[in-house]
């Protein structure tokens, strides 16, 4: 079956620090990979995605590269801001279409100090 | 655009009662809606997929008679937890997929409902 493993949290960083959040997956077939972010009191929002190997998803300064050889999709940002404090979920879907379903990792809480 | 709301945001009920949670897509039509359950420090677990006008498809291990799902319109799905017990206490999250848009059908998530059963 499909599964997503995220590094244990929480993570606390100072503003402008470099961020890496690890994510690895197991899947049947060829998954699409996603990062979702959940800000306090809000629903999950799609942060970025990659649909095939070697694709790089990017948004709001965050990047993640689909690495098929290591089955990974690590999230990075060069300089975090206080406003990036949120819960981050890695997810995959093995079918991009009307019947696709998302499999989520446990999520990791990021706190950024001023 | 693409806002999903849930109501209520928080509910406390007595054991044995039923609780209804609403999920609405506010500015788009959603043929498909999903219901997830999230335990503390755990990932979101898909409970069921509901399609407008048809029966919901439940994931393995989810009791369909306990978690009743109705998707009567393109903007509203409801989850009713029947005869709730303390072990049903959890964070319930819905998502909605915009009808017929592109190759990747993005899900838009509601803010969740915290259910506490005493």
Structural notes for this entry:
The complex is a heterodimer of chains A (114) and B (118). Chain A is 0% helix and 48% strand. Chain A has 114 residues and is an all-beta fold. In chain A, strands 2, 5, 6, 10, 11 and 12 form a six-stranded mixed sheet that branches. In chain A, strands 3-9-8-7 form a four-stranded antiparallel sheet, with no helix packed on it. In chain A, strands 1-4 form a two-stranded antiparallel ribbon. Chain B is mostly beta strands and 118 residues long. In chain B, the strands form two sheets. In chain B, strands 2, 4, 5, 6, 9, 10 and 11 form a seven-stranded mixed sheet that branches. In chain B, strands 1-3-8-7 form a four-stranded antiparallel sheet, with no helix packed on it. Chain B is globular, with a radius of gyration of 14 Å. Chains A and B meet through strand 5, strand 6 and strand 11 of A and strand 4, strand 5, strand 9 and strand 10 of B.
Quick overview:
The complex is a heterodimer of chains A (114) and B (118). Chain A has no helices and twelve strands.
Instruction: Give helix and strand order of chain A, one letter per element, not per position.
Output: EEEEEEEEEEEE
Q: How much of the residues of chain A is beta strand, in percent?
A: over 45%
Morphology call of chain A: globular
Strand percentage of chain B lies at over 45%
Biggest interface found: A-B, 24 and 23 residues
Helical fraction of chain B equals under 10%
How much helicity do the residues of chain A have?
under 10%
State the end-to-end distance of chain B. 37 Å
* Overall residue-averaged pLDDT value of chain B: 90
**Oligomer description:** heterodimer
Radius of gyration of chain A: 14 Å
Q: What sort of overall outline of chain B do the alpha carbons produce when their principal axes are compared?
A: globular
Class computed from helices, strands and strand pairing of chain A: mainly beta
């Amino acid at each position: 079956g499909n599964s997503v493993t995220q590094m244990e949290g929480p993570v606390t960083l100072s503003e402008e620090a470099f961020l890496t959040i690890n994510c690895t997956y197991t899947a049947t077939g060829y998954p699409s990979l996603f990062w979702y972010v959940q800000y306090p009191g809000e629903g999950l929002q799609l942060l970025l995605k990659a649909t095939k190997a070697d694709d790089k998803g990017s948004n709001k300064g965050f990047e993640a590269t689909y690495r098929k050889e290591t089955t990974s999709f690590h999230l990075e940002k060069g300089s975090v801001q206080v406003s990036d404090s949120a819960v981050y979920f890695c997810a995959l879907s093995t079918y991009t279409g009307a019947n696709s379903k998302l499999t989520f990792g446990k999520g990791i809480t990021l706190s950024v100090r001023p | 655009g693409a806002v999903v709301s849930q109501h209520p945001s928080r509910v406390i009920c007595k054991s044995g009662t039923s609780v209804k949670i609403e999920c609405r897509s506010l500015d788009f039509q959603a043929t498909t809606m999903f219901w997830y359950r999230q335990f503390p420090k755990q990932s979101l677990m898909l409970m069921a997929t509901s399609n407008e006008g048809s029966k919901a498809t439940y994931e393995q291990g989810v009791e369909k008679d306990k978690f009743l799902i109705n998707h009567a319109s393109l903007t509203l799905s409801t989850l009713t937890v029947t005869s709730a017990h303390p072990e049903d206490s959890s964070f319930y999250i819905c998502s909605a997929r915009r009808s017929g848009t592109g190759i990747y059908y993005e899900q838009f998530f509601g803010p969740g409902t915290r259910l506490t059963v005493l």
